[in-house]
Specification:
This protein has 300 residues and is α/β, with parallel strands linked by helices. It contains eight helices and ten strands. Helix 6 runs antiparallel to helix 8. The N terminus is likely disordered.
Length: 300
């Protein structure tokens, strides 16, 4: 078999916290679409608001391919975030699919979070996003992300430039990476959402199936470590996912690349790169699943 194999060890993880189940009379709930051009921090923001990872992130744009749902449940509210692929001018069928996924999420939402990179003035793709948002009747919250790397004069000038593109129902400057302004953002969201029930159990954090999330976490590590050496076309297929009598979850996954040369880069000298990807992916998978994991990775 012309595949490379990695077998990884297991470690212990802590217990997941319990959530309150009582719903007060003033409980609020709703769906929030998270939109913006690629690489402005949409997935990082959603993960930070949820307090754990449900969407993968990497320094490369257009990492998110599908709509990812994250569910934040608190005693007084439940917010269902829909993280979307970045809206941009597609240059291939994958790009077209990603934009279609982003636009398809808007009719399901109660409001829209427009995430922007305020460290930079609006780009061409920001103008495309604004054009889409101006055609919507939903409230738009302007989220000025990356204030931790933005100079004060740039913050004022760039924020005004974004305001001129779309008149927001609310505006807040945040740093998703540093956790700045997130409590204030959640408070604004709660004020805007209608009274309603919980749509999901309080311990559920995503609609995404476990197999899909595991595959995405593995793909994230490959994209992070290999950057431009392996393209976005890299894909991961989880072929086996089962719990053993010992309680350890056995996962067998295959990483697909386009060319033989890319396979060698992903495996690395003596399997070093594949081992690093597997080790880091397994640690995050264990945190998400709340269980020990035995991970087999293959490259084809």
């Amino acid at each position: 078999m012309n595949d490379e194999l990695l077998r990884d060890e297991v470690i212990d993880v802590g217990e997941m916290p319990d959530l309150l189940e009582d719903v007060p009379e003033d409980h609020r709930s709703g769906f929030v679409a998270v939109v913006g051009r690629p690489n402005v921090g949409k997935s990082t923001l959603m993960n930070a608001l949820l307090g754990q990872k449900v969407a993968i992130v990497s320094p490369r744009p257009q990492t998110t391919r599908n709509r990812i749902t994250g569910i934040l449940t608190r005693p007084d509210m439940q917010i269902i975030f829909i993280d979307t692929p970045g809206i941009h001018a597609p240059r291939h069928r994958l790009g077209e699919f990603m934009v279609e996924q982003a636009l398809a999420s808007l009719p399901d939402a109660d409001l829209i979070l427009w995430v922007t990179d305020v460290s930079k003035p609006p780009r061409e793709d920001d103008l495309r996003v604004a054009e889409v948002l101006r055609a919507q009747t939903l409230p738009v919250f302007l989220v000025l992300n990356k204030i931790d790397i933005t100079k004060p004069d740039g913050l004022q000038a760039h924020a005004q430039a974004y305001r001129e593109l779309v008149t927001p129902a609310a505006e807040l400057a945040v740093s998703a990476l540093r956790g700045l302004g997130l409590a204030e953002l959640l408070a604004l969201l709660r004020e805007q959402l209608p009274p309603g029930p919980r749509y999901f159990p309080p311990d559920q954090i995503s609609e995404v199936q476990e197999r899909f999330l595991v595959a995405e976490l593995i793909r994230e590590k490959a994209l992070y470590h290999l950057r431009e050496e392996v393209p976005h076309a890299v894909a991961v297929d989880v072929e086996e996912f089962k719990e053993r009598p010992t309680g350890v979850i056995y996962i067998a996954a295959r990483i697909f690349v386009e060319r033989e040369s890319q396979k060698g880069i992903l495996v690395g000298k003596g399997g070093s790169m594949l081992k690093r990807i597997g080790r880091e992916a397994r640690m995050e998978i264990e945190q998400v699943l709340g269980s020990r994991v035995y991970l087999d990775l293959w490259v084809k």
